[in-house]
Specification:
By secondary structure, the protein is an all-beta fold. It is 2% helix and 53% strand.
Length: 189
């Protein structure tokens, strides 16, 4: 996948002769006080969210250590089924219709299908990108509609305690022109 770059910053640590060990939680590590890492996981391995815990250990010149951990999440719009389904419906913002995005992810490239289920169903193929800052941009292949927004984490509702991804997208074109719609992951567990 290798999309979002993570920043680890221990530069505010205090003491003499400090050394650092950042363990990213995926088997890799660094001894730099400020480091970045692109976690290279396949979208199917994340499917749709994976929790990882990073650990920072700081050691001073006398051998005294202090450690802290930080949990972070990898999110993919792709699942083991080969695609991720995001759904929005029964809300005023959707005009009472069900909206569905089926997406596959190859690195930063997204493709799939948009479907609006109403009295007269419509939709079509979409393509777009997911950038480092969690921005998502999709366009129908015919250019009639655009979906722009972010991938966000919704607080956990499932007993696993894991948050789940949503797409908060503004829509340009079509019957929902100017609407902001939250697409929820339809099959997170």
């Amino acid at each position: 996948m290798n999309v979002t770059q993570l920043l680890f910053d221990a530069s505010r640590s205090e003491g003499d002769g400090l050394t650092y060990l950042v363990e990213y939680g995926d088997g890799a590590s660094s001894t730099e006080p400020v480091t970045t890492r692109r976690v290279n996981e396949s979208p199917a391995a994340i499917a749709p969210i994976k929790s990882i815990t990073a650990k920072l250990t700081v050691t001073d010149r006398h051998g005294r250590t202090d450690s802290t951990t930080q949990r972070y999440f990898l999110v993919s719009v792709h699942t083991n089924a080969g695609y991720g389904t995001f759904w929005a419906g029964d809300r005023p913002a959707t005009g009472g219709q069900d909206l569905i995005l089926n997406l596959t992810q190859d690195g930063a490239t997204l493709s799939g299908r948009y479907l609006a289920k109403s009295r007269t169903p419509f939709g079509g193929p979409v393509a777009g990108v997911l950038t480092d800052d969690r921005t998502i941009r999709l366009k129908t292949v015919d250019g009639a509609m655009e979906f722009n927004g972010t991938v966000e984490l919704r607080p956990p509702w499932h007993p696993s305690g894991e948050p789940y991804p949503i797409l908060r997208l503004s829509i340009r074109g079509g019957a929902l022109n100017g609407s902001v719609v939250e697409f929820e992951f339809a099959d997170p567990y």
